[in-house]
Amino acid sequence: MSLRLGDVAPDFDANTTQGTIRFHEWLGNSWGMLFSHPADFTPVCTTELGKTALLQGEFEKRNVKVIAVSVDDLESHNRWIPDINEVTGSDVNFPIIADEGRKVAQLYDMIHPNASEKATVRSVFIIGPDKKIKLTLTYPASTGRNFNELLRVVDSLQLTATHSVATPADWKDGEDVIVVPAVSTEDAEKKFTKGLRIVKPYLRYTPQPNK
Description:
Blueprint: E1 13-16, E2 19-22, H1 23-27, E3 31-36, H2 43-54, H3 56-61, E4 64-70, H4 74-88, E5 96-98, H5 103-107, E6 122-127, E7 133-139, H6 147-162, E8 165-166, E9 177-179, H7 185-191, E10 197-200, E11 203-206
Parallel strand pairs: 3-4, 4-5
Antiparallel strand pairs: 1-2, 1-5, 3-6, 6-7, 8-9, 9-11, 10-11
Helix pairs in contact: 2-4
């Protein structure tokens, strides 16, 4: 059965380019991003892991630990990393799971027989400090992911987890947010002291409360 939002992310032991880990223990109290790539030494994956490495500081600012996975072995990962660094001008300093037994891929339903019997598709799981899945995305092997968009999603997830707000279409950190319907207008006026802009009774904007 496929994993759903709100499910506890399956725990596992794995060998990685930074040693053996137990996933939940490795996450600790951090947020996490687990993302799969179809295979080592492939062009799109090279750009993706390089981009993630270049954005590592942005993920760290948000208390997000990043970890990649593919069904290739540890030796292959370690031979590939210098290529990624050379091509993208990055320094891959996050772990890559060697999942040649496909344990992690199967736990997270990352292998889709309609696409390939053995290669993982481009899946992304954002996991909260409570170890629950907050976001899932799946791309075909031919389409590279937008990692700036993943940072934007993390900003939204972290904001909406602690305030009674939602984020509108194309929202970026620092822009106005929407008051959730569960909060009455009367309560919203008291709660959101920076102001309330009422477009419709059900559509009420307020400046981002944590700025």
